[in-house]
Design brief:
Number of strands: 0
Radius of gyration: 25 Å
CATH superfamily of the largest domain: PSPTO4464-like domains
Structural class: mainly alpha
Order of helices and strands: HHHHHHHH
Largest sheet: none
CATH topology of the largest domain: Diphtheria Toxin Repressor, domain 2
CATH architecture of the largest domain: Orthogonal Bundle
Length: 164
């Protein structure tokens, strides 16, 4: 029977740090989300205590204590639930970046509108052409970016329509 070699000190420190970071994520959760997690009572109490502590040093010690408590629980389901909650936010960020990219392309490239219409055939070409023209005019004249914002809103509506 072969035994696996003991964990190195560096590996133990990294795992401990990861658990402490997971504990910090728990402390940052709202009370509703915290209640939705199935945490052992001792860990839930420690997290709620940390949320009430405002002093820097006391909070730091409490965070270390939470990291220590995290070693006693199975962190996998907790991590999985936190990641699941982050997924919609990541999707929103990705969509926002996609809209921003299209808006900048429409304002910078002459053939971008044709590509947009090709990718989104149900798009109103005249509407986007007018919004791009007005946004460029606003930029040249240093006016408030009303059409620039409208272009963003139109792109978002267009992309949401296709995603549904």
């Amino acid at each position: 029977m072969t035994q696996s070699p003991p964990l190195s000190k560096t590996r133990r420190k990294k795992e401990s740090q990861a658990l402490q970071e997971l504990g910090a994520e728990l402390v940052a959760l709202s009370s509703e989300r915290l209640a939705a997690l199935e945490l052992p009572e001792f860990l839930r109490d420690a997290v709620m205590d940390a949320q009430r502590i405002s002093g820097f040093e006391a909070r730091r010690r409490q965070m270390q204590y939470i990291g220590k408590l995290m070693r006693k629980v199975d962190a996998e389901p907790i991590q999985a639930r936190l990641e699941a909650w982050k997924s919609p936010e990541r999707a929103q960020v990705a969509q926002f970046k996609r809209i921003e990219t299209w808006r900048e392309r429409l304002l910078a490239e002459t053939n971008a509108l044709t590509e947009l219409i090709r990718e989104y055939p149900h798009a109103d070409a005249r509407q986007f052409e007018a919004l791009v023209r007005d946004a460029l005019r606003e930029r040249e004249q240093n006016r408030p970016p009303r059409s620039y914002r409208e272009l963003f809103q139109a792109l978002r509506a267009l992309m949401e329509m296709r995603d549904k």
